[in-house]
Amino acid sequence: MKTTIKITGFISLFLISIGTLFKLLHLPGSNLLLLFGPLCFTVLFLPVFFIRRIRNSESSLEKATNIIGLIALTDIFFGVIFKNLHISGANILLLLGAFLFAFIALPLYMFGVKKKSEKSMSEKIALVFIGIYCSMFIILYSLRFTFDIINTYVVLSDQQVKSTKAINEIIADYDRMMKDKDIECGEIKKIEDLRNDLLNYIQEIRILLISYSESEYNTDEIFNNYRLISNGDDIDITNYCMGWEKGKELKNKIINYQTSICNYLTTHEKKGLAIEINSLLNTGDVKTERGLMNWDQAMFNNVPLTGALAILNGIEHDIKTAELFLKRSIVTDNNTTQDSIVQQ
Hints:
Layout: H1 2-24, H2 30-55, H3 60-85, H4 90-112, H5 119-142, H6 147-180, H7 186-211, H8 219-224, H9 235-242, H10 246-267, H11 271-280, E1 286-288, E2 291-293, H12 295-300, H13 305-343
Helix pairs in contact: 1-2, 1-5, 2-3, 3-4, 6-13, 7-10, 7-13, 10-11, 10-13
């Protein structure tokens, strides 16, 4: 049994330590390492270790201490696993486990239970506990974004939403003008279809992101106030969701919309405006400290949940701005043409 404890303890500590390093350096594979490490520790190491200690307990106090320690550490590491898999209840398990370990099991172990025969073995096992315990909480808390940064994302998102609503009102006015003047064009209808498809896809991504958020409020309430998301600093949700080719698909839809508008403007001798819209909806590679990155990676890789939602709001704002430029140009050209006819 001692051999089993040593092997499972070593494997668990190794996986979690490497996973922690990968996480800090934002290297791929960290999530898998931080899934299998705690799983190995919780399912293989903890039961064997504590069953042995419970059987060898010399007093009821020592037995109770070991049972509480088993429950506490099981809660903590199942909480970590749940957190990694974005399963609800992770925070409750972490808080309950941390409370039991810090305020009950640890004091009893340090000051209430002593066993000379197990001294050397306990010292070795203590290193495993300390290493794993510290590593997991470094991951969970040292990488958290500060409240100020998250709040900045929320404020920015609120401003974008207000601006987009104002743009929508202006676009509605231009739509009425185009309808009154019987301005119809198959190309405009195609552009509007691409716009609707793009906006629907953005909404689909928002719903997916929010479905993994931790909040007691419903989706509609969260849409109106991102402050209701308790885990707005979670970068794993963004990486997980956008890793399903969502980022690439979003990029392709933006390019299709951008190309359609620019082709229309170029055909109608509006190259200057086409260049402006091309810049507004640019999805080219982004220069970063690590070199060139694909647009989707630069936008969403290791971005907190609230930040990803703010970025999506910003993209929607740019899409509507491009539409505003297009329709304003169409209405303005039509008015100029009619004035010329009247003067002649």
